Amino acid sequence: MQTVTVLGATGSIGCSTLDVLQRHPDRYRVFALTGNNQLEKLMEQAKACSARYVVVADEARYLDAIALAEQYGVTSEILCGAKALEEVSSDAQVTTVMAAIVGAAGLLPTLAAVKAGKRVLLANKEALVMSGELFIDAANQSGAEILPIDSEHNAIFQCLPHTFSYGQFAASGIHQILLTGSGGPFRTRELSTFSDITVSEACAHPNWSMGRKITVDSATMMNKGLEFIEACWLFGATAKDITVVLHPQSVVHSMVQYTDGSVIAQLGNPDMRTPIAYGLAWPERINAGVAPLDFAQMRDLSFDSPCYERYPNLQLAIMACEAGQAATTRLNAANEVAVAAFLEGQIGFTRIAEINQETLNRMEPTIVSSLQQILEEDQKARQMALSLVRGLR
Ligand code: NAD
Ligand code: MG
Questions:
Q1: Whose CB has fewer CB within 10 Å in the chain, the N or C terminal residue?
Q2: CB of residue 130 inside a 6 A radius of ligand 1
Q3: Closest residue by CA, ligand 1 atom 43
Q4: 61-90 pLDDT, tens per residue?
Q5: How far is residue 346's CA from residue 343's CA, in Å, rounded to a whole number?
Q6: Is 42 in the same domain as 134?
Q7: What domain range includes position 377?
Q8: Which of 35, 75, 61, 102 is nearest to 335 (CA)?
Q9: Is residue 299 pLDDT above 90, yes or no?
């Protein structure tokens, strides 16, 4: 029996995780669910899975949460705040933590789970992009099992040889990782019209249903850029080990190309319950509730290479990956600020990449290694990006 904490239970990944958990009550019990502001949904979830704890990240909502818990007949203990998120991630009774908070807000609770040696199902890619080496070192020290939930990294994990050890590409006969991405809703849109892109157009992904931030990141392909950095840290790759491939149908979730000419791919319907179930059950397999791929119905699978003029954020991320931890932390922070400003209608679509680029340009190169330095760099880059959003610089 695994005892599971779901960080970010009310989000897209959180809901898919609860769906899989509820299909297997004999294997999993829920320890804690956490959420930020959709408290009604959080209480419904807590009741349905008899969670022991419910954590409301925003302390200002604590009294609302207590009142709602009573109204919904929720018997879970209600906690709040950042420390409580870390506590339910590292509690001795917990075996498994789904890290599905969006953005930098997920870093500390995810790291707490890693340091406590849990099985960590990593959806929150921003945490790894920010803290890379520190995160991997902490996992090595504690013995935490990091299982990638991002569909591409989960696919790569499935396609690597069982004997693969961290960073050993040539020794494992691997030529390269082929990281696939759909190219989002604007893959064929006339470039000259990009400044007219609306929030609802950017929030309409052709294949995947996801939270708003990652959906905008998919439209700019910053998502693929963050995933490029994520792949480097997860598998010990360098930039030359990874090629991004456009694949509009999102059926092939990524591939590993071997030196003997073989390519091993993982395919499936675009449904996050597949990688979630894989991470939960690994090394076994369980039913995820996902429809099987129907090859009789499948239309063409096509592939292409991405154009950086269309996706400047992808190029920025690959350059930041080569530049090091300070650059990736800053880029992630600037992008969170710029995407939030775009979603609030404060800036246009093309300003996202410009603000990201300007934030990197205006900050001096530096080396960050401690958690303290990473959090400081994150804050400085947020302030820089925010002043660019407001037109103060
Ligand atoms: P979402 O916006 O649907 O959900 C985010 C969750 O985080 C919610 O439960 C929300 O309450 C919580 N949250 C937000 N701000 C918080 C804060 N300040 N403190 C604590 N909790 C907070 O996002 P999502 O689409 O589920 O994505 C979650 C993570 O998984 C992201 O890092 C995303 O990149 C990654 N991911 C998502 C998908 C997908 O299909 N949705 C696929 C791959 C990776
Ligand atoms: Mg992905």
A1: N
A2: no
A3: 150
A4: 999 999 999 999 999 999 999 999 999 999
A5: 8
A6: yes
A7: 324-392
A8: 102
A9: no
